[in-house]
Structures are given as C-alpha cells and as structure tokens.
Q: What sequence folds into this?
C-alpha cells in the first residue's frame, strides 16, 4: 500500500500557509504577470526537491491501444519528490496516456510505472482508490459533482476515506479559505466562474495534502488572466513539497516559468530539460 | 458503522431529491409493472387452483352388479384390486341406499318419488394422480360383479388435456410478465445511472471505492422499489376491494381461491425491493470500471 509517509510532505512551510490570490495590477500583460510569478516563486522559501528515490518513475513504458494505435512508446523518465514538471506535446502525443497510467486507469502494454517506489502493475485493483487518494487531480473540465455545493464537493474527497465529520468540518473551510473561496461554500458549481470552479477542484485535489498533484491542462478552459491566478495557486502547492505534473499547451506559461519540461511526440520522449521552454531552444 | 450507514442513506436521499424526474420515472415504472403482475397473479392463481380442484375430483366409479352384493368376498376382491392399482389414493364403498341419499341431495323432488333405490352400489376410487384414471378403470373391468368402470372418459380426458394447457399458459404468462418487469426496471435503472455516469467517474477519480459509489445507488434503488411496490399494492388493494374481489368470487368455491392478498402484497414488496436494490448494484458494474 502506498502510504503518505513514503513520500513525506510538509504543508506547513514558512511562507506557504496562505494560497489566496494576490491582486496583481491590471496594467501588466499576462507575460509580465507570469514572469513576475516565476520570479516570486524563485525567491519564495520552498521545500527543496528531494534527492532520494523518485516519486514517479516510468521504466520503458509502452502503451498501445488495440493493434496499431500507440499511446506511449518505450518511455523512461523519473520525477523527484517536490519537483515541478511540465508535460508538453501536441494532441495525441501521449500526455493523457501518461496521466491515465499514473492513475491506473489502465495498465501499460510493456514496462512498469512506479509511484512512491511501488509498481502499479502489482497493485491490486482494490487498492486503486488508495493510490488515487495520494494523487490530487485537476482537470481542464474541473470534474466537479454538479449536484453538490462547493463545500460538499471538497468534503467528498475526505468522505471517501471515511474521515470523521469533525475533521471534515474543520479542514474543508480552511482549504477553501486558502484558495480564496471561503465566502462561497454554499454555491453550486454552475453558479461559479470557470476560475472559481478550478479553485474548487484544486481545493478538492489538495485537501488531503497528497504527495502528488496531477494537472491535465488545468488552465485550458480559462481566460489568460484567470489562468495566472490558478498557476499562482499551483506554485504555492508545489513549494510546500508536493510533486506537480502538469500537462499543458500553454506555450507562454512554460516559456516564462522555466521549469522541467518533458516533451512527447507520437508517444516518444523527444526532450527532457531541467529548465526548458515549450519548444526546443 | 451506524454513522457510516446513516451517511449512505443521506447520500441516497439527496440524490433521489436531486434527480427527482428520474426518481419519479423509476417509481412509476415499478408501480405499473408490479400492479399488472399483481392483477395477473390474482387471476392466474385462481384459475390454477380451479384447475387443480378439477383434477382432484377425477375419480373412477366402479358400478357393481346387484347380484354380486350378497357375495362379500367378491365385492371385497374388487375393492382390493382397486386399492392395489398404482395411482389410487383411497377407495370408498357406496351402497345402493347411500347412492340414493347422495342423489336425494342433488335432485330431491325426483328421488322422493322413488320407493326403492334404482342406483347401483359402487366402489369410488380417488386418485393421487388423475392421469392414471384410465389404467385404474382398466384394472377392474371384466372382473366378476363389475358392471361398469367409469372414469368419465371424454370429460376426464378433456379436463386433463385442458388442465395441462391452462397451467402451461398461466405459467408462461407469469414468466413473460415477470421477465418484462425485470427488463423494464433494469432499463430504467440503466438510464438513470447512465445519466450520472460522469458523476460516478469523478467519484472514482477522487479515490472512492466501488462500494462507496455503489451503496447510495443501491439504497436509492431499494427505496424506489419499495415505494413503487407499496403504491402498486395500494392500487391493487383499491382495485381488489372495488371490483376485483367480486369478480374473483365468481370463481371461488370451497377450496379454490386466489393467492391471499397478504401473501401477494408481501411477494410484490420483496420483488420491488430486490429488483430496485439488486438491479442498481448489477447495473452499476459497467460504470464502475473507471
């Protein structure tokens, strides 16, 4: 079983206790705001990237769908604890396959996917919920439960683990305050803007303080300005020691942030740079 | 544990409220299906018991010649032969006087005009299996003192043939109705879960176990099933009190009667609960593979 202790994160990092968005003056362009964000992130105190065993490792992973469709081809990468990784590549390059393999939605055709040192292929199906509780997920389409309000959506992630009610009543409002939605607990998803919905989904993904956060184009449905706020939130989460894997098409963001970039094309790894851009320099 | 269960019931109730239209559709389906099943079971069980009663009444009457009556051993020998034939449950001796008394009940005016009994004495053989009537009659035919062995040939043959057909038709119709009930309800459940498959997907992505997702759905199905069954039973009760009981009484006599209403209500309630609860659980299976 994958235990949180295996990956050991601390949320109470100095400087990372609030994740509320700061109002950035409107006059700045998006690029400038992103650059500012990168700089701010550079300077803020953070949990150092771990040097120990990787949190995520793909070992010669091939995934084919049916006879001829290739999702991933012989991919080997490893991601350290606390690292931030941009997963880039055109549609159909294998980004979604990468994420679905991590969530054990299906098995690789060849090779092994390891999370926290454990081979997912050897993880029994009944343990998959455990695995997913250790990986927060943020999607382009938010994936909120439409019939539940903001509070209930975030609470659900704790309810599935059988957390006692008192615990939930304490943690959920706290988490929603951190993402700046403390005033909107009773709202339903359809009453919120896209950016707000994505904040709810981030709150839900992070309320357990999972060691890994997986984001599949989290800003894909948001306007350029709103997406900066979402990124700010995700950076803060990363600084607290959580490993973040983010698939994205946002060229400007990747270029400004200068973080590790893993580029895929037709299921192959074509580039893996420690401080890369969206396209090869 | 108790708290957990409470949580699931609350979840189920919430979702019943949120998906009100689906709840109504599912419940109404259960009501209609179970109501018709109930009506049919009432009528069908009456017809069935009627047929069974007829079958029980089949007996072989062995008329004795008057001159043999003074010869006890000969009379007893006929009785013993009858008794020894497979398919005979019990035999009765009916003397001439008794035969007259029986007839007197049926046609008092006519019998009253008779001085002595014109009716022959007889052995009546009651059968454990009505299909053996013919062979029982054949066994004693031709024995000294036997005038005639009558099993109501044409009538019994027709009855037995019809009984088999009627029972098969009733059984077949109940089966068809029950199967269509299952399919109709399963389909309604499938539609309602299909409408919420995205929700199920999200639940699983957040780390919910299959049972955590399934249980509220099962409780939902169970509640819809029980509610639907209760409504169907009320409707059936109203119909029963109003005209169905009169209609059924036409066919009732002595020990033929339709299945008791309490038993029927119980059966329908169980059917509703099982169809709803188990149906939901089974239908969930393919949506849980995420």
A:
């Amino acid at each position: 079983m994958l235990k949180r202790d295996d990956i050991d994160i601390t949320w109470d990092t100095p400087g990372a206790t609030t994740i509320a968005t700061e109002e950035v003056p409107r006059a700045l362009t998006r690029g400038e705001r992103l650059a500012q964000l990168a700089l701010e992130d550079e300077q803020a105190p953070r949990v150092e990237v771990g040097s120990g065993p990787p949190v995520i490792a793909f070992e010669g992973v091939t995934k084919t769908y049916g006879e001829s469709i290739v999702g991933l081809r012989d991919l080997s990468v490893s991601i350290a604890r606390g690292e931030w990784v941009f997963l880039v590549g055109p549609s159909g390059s294998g980004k979604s396959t990468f994420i679905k393999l991590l969530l054990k939605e299906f098995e690789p055709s060849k090779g092994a996917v390891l999370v926290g040192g454990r081979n997912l292929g050897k993880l029994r199906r009944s343990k998959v919920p455990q695995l997913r509780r250790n990986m927060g997920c943020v999607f382009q389409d938010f994936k909120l439960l439409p019939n539940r309000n903001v509070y209930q959506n975030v609470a659900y992630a704790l309810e599935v683990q059988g957390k006692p009610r008192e615990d939930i009543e304490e943690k959920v409002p706290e988490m929603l305050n951190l993402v700046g939605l403390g005033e909107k607990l009773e709202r339903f998803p359809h009453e919120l803007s896209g950016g707000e919905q994505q904040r709810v989904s981030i709150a839900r993904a992070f309320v357990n303080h999972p060691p890994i956060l997986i984001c599949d184009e989290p800003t894909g449905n948001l306007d350029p300005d709103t997406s900066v706020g979402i990124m700010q939130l995700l950076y803060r989460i990363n600084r607290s020691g959580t490993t973040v894997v983010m698939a994205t098409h946002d060229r400007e963001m990747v270029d400004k942030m200068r973080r590790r970039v893993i580029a895929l094309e037709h299921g192959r790894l074509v580039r893996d740079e420690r401080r890369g851009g969206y396209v090869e320099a | 544990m108790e708290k957990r269960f409470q949580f699931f019931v609350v979840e189920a109730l919430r979702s019943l409220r949120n998906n009100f239209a689906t709840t109504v559709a599912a419940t109404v389906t259960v009501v209609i299906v179970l109501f018709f099943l109930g009506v049919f079971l009432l009528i069908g069980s009456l017809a069935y018991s009627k047929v069974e009663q007829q079958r029980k009444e089949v007996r072989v009457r062995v008329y004795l010649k008057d001159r043999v009556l003074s010869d006890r051993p000969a009379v007893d020998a006929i009785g013993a032969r009858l008794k020894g034939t497979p398919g005979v449950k019990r035999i009765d001796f009916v003397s001439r006087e008794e035969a007259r008394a029986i007839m007197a009940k049926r046609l008092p005016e006519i019998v009253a005009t008779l001085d002595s009994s014109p009716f022959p004495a007889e052995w009546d053989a009651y059968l454990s299996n009505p299909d053996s009537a013919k062979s029982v009659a054949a066994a004693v035919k031709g024995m000294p003192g036997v005038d005639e062995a009558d099993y109501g040939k044409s009538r019994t043959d027709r009855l037995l043939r019809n009984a088999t057909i009627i029972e098969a038709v009733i059984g077949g119709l109940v089966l068809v109705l029950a199967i269509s009930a299952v399919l109709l309800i399963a389909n309604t459940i499938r539609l309602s879960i299909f409408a919420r498959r995205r929700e199920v997907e999200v639940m699983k992505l957040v780390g919910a176990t299959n049972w955590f997702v399934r249980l509220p759905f099962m409780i939902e199905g169970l509640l819809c099933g029980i509610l639907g069954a209760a409504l169907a039973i009320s409707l059936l009760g109203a119909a029963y009190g109003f005209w169905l009981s009169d209609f059924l009484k036409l066919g009732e006599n002595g020990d033929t009667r339709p299945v008791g209403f309490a038993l029927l209500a119980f059966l329908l309630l169980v059917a509703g609960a099982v169809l709803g609860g188990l149906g939901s659980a089974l239908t969930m299976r393919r949506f849980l593979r995420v």
